[in-house]
Description:
alpha/beta; 5-stranded mixed sheet; homodimer; 41% helix
Amino acid sequence: MRSLTKATHQDTREHNVRLVMRALAGLGPISRADIARRTDLTRTTVSDVVNQLAAAGLVQEIGRGPSSGGKAPILLQIPRDARQLIGVHVGEGQVRGAIVNLAGEISHREQLTLEGRDGDDALHRLEELLDRLLVVAAQPPLGVGIGTSGLVDTNAGTVRWAVHLDWRDLHLAARLRSRTGLPVYVANDSQAAALAEWTFGGHTPARGMIVIKVGNGIGAGIIIDDRLYQGDSSGAGEIGHVSVVANDVRCRCGRTGCLETIASLRAVDGRIQAVAHGPDERPEPSSNDPGALERSLDAYLTGDEQVRGIVIEAGRALGRMVGYLVGALDIHDIVLIGSMTAFGDPWLDAVRNEAQRSALPLLFDSTRIGLGRLGSDIVELGAAALLMTAELGLSQAA
Amino acid sequence: MRSLTKATHQDTREHNVRLVMRALAGLGPISRADIARRTDLTRTTVSDVVNQLAAAGLVQEIGRGPSSGGKAPILLQIPRDARQLIGVHVGEGQVRGAIVNLAGEISHREQLTLEGRDGDDALHRLEELLDRLLVVAAQPPLGVGIGTSGLVDTNAGTVRWAVHLDWRDLHLAARLRSRTGLPVYVANDSQAAALAEWTFGGHTPARGMIVIKVGNGIGAGIIIDDRLYQGDSSGAGEIGHVSVVANDVRCRCGRTGCLETIASLRAVDGRIQAVAHGPDERPEPSSNDPGALERSLDAYLTGDEQVRGIVIEAGRALGRMVGYLVGALDIHDIVLIGSMTAFGDPWLDAVRNEAQRSALPLLFDSTRIGLGRLGSDIVELGAAALLMTAELGLSQAA
């Protein structure tokens, strides 16, 4: 006997709200009648939902549209600044936060370095950042979304394990909720970034998308049927630590052969440094070395063949993993983000070619591998999208 | 702007029917009041749905249960023989069909060899099989479900490509629908098998499951959030043809390095034959050689170290793929089926150990890799489950 899914009237109501909100976000300005037509909801249901949204300040009338015979219909839209969202990225080396509106526009940013802090010290830094953002917010924001590296249980709001922060089973959402009095949601940074591309990236409509973040670490966020797919324990997309390479390079997770040991910026930087200084001379690359990208790019741009080979090999290893994902999931839209994308077309071509080589041609034919469209605020935006989705019943695709 | 999901009143009704049917299937015999309690539907809605199901002969009253104070409640259940389902497996070398009831019990089987037939000849054979089954069926069955190897677009009801049948863009569902006058559904055989384990396998309740079929070919069926996940073009789970091995063995898909070239029965049989006869003497293994399993098992049971190594290596290669899937999808229940499972514990241990080695420990800790619980009728049962799900609004998990 399996447990029953709860499908309550509440669910139906939320589903209707989400449908109307998406119509407003995607098609607005739009009339009630057109919303009903596009959503297949009755006009009565649409009117009820619109009244509910209007009472919450989430919809506004902006005048009458063209008449199609009868009385000209009143057009509705979501006031993009109706709510302020706080999106935070707990990164390697710093915590960054932004005040974001419902259209994904950032009105204010804050940033604090971690300077090697971890454990409670890092947590206090995060709390300080939040305090600063809350002071700046013009009105009480809708809540707080947080994207952090590590394994995160979004349902429970806990960070199960974030190695560079030394956080283990940290009840982050509950702790920040009691501090701020606001709803707080936490997700893995790659998953948050995927939500950002999906929600605010302006990509061609699709049912799903895989967004792969390739920086010092590697992780994917998977969108399936219009929603962030997180797996049985919120660990979906942890592709950086699957063994794909027959090398004996020790990964920061303690094992060998992980994708991160060859395809991450950290790995590429380490290998390029070894070429430049010899394997014994070079400093062990630290995971939050802010100079890694610039240094690696500089070496790459000198045109050195060995350095070029390291970057291409990194792209190929990633491409193999993309091929596995396409084969397993049959999702056609693959979006690459993160610092490694700075290596440009040669790297991207290596990813594409190897992915194509390792997936079934019939599946691969309709696959598009491209770069993300958002900037360095992507995790903050994704954290805001997570909050928006959960609190407003807005679909990730709105 | 994204297209809007259609969520009509029809959808809500179907959802309610599915909820009530699942309550009946999983918890029955059960009263209307208990159904309402367990589904969070109103008692009026439950009564309406039950009346609708009763009119269709899908629910029966079986007397009164114990009273909890007031009047003793009437208990309801699904009559397991209320509908006959036809499930068909288009396999390599034969087509097999079964008449199945709503509990997954088979009352009749038919089977026809293909003997090398493909194209229209194979199709005629399938039609002949269907005719035989329809003659035997006591009443017009609910419809026909078909599981076939190859890439299948379930939504369109077409076989996009089935290499051993030489079927390309075959409108199988439409063709059989017009022949039989019945609803027809088609899925890939691995996906159908996954549905069978999920629906009738009696596994511990879970949100998702990955079922991997390891026979002459290798393919997975993925259940996510209680439903068969098929991907953007119904190709999800095509893991047999992703490049994971650095060998130059030509796969039947035309490429090299595919998982099937090392982990399938066909590959294992070929390699064992090469050990026995020398690489030049051995006949090229054919994909539907019925003696492959027995021959390979016999060689394996002699205890020959080289043969044992071939089987273990096959298990390890599969285990690596399992590790990738666990890392990417974070699904905890992995079920292995197909002829390779006959190699028993040493092979299964090789799969488990390598999967564990290649996935992040924190993710892998709660992963269970086990064997399937259904017999050789699994694809027929899965095809019947596909039909049942689609036609009755029954969840795959009912």
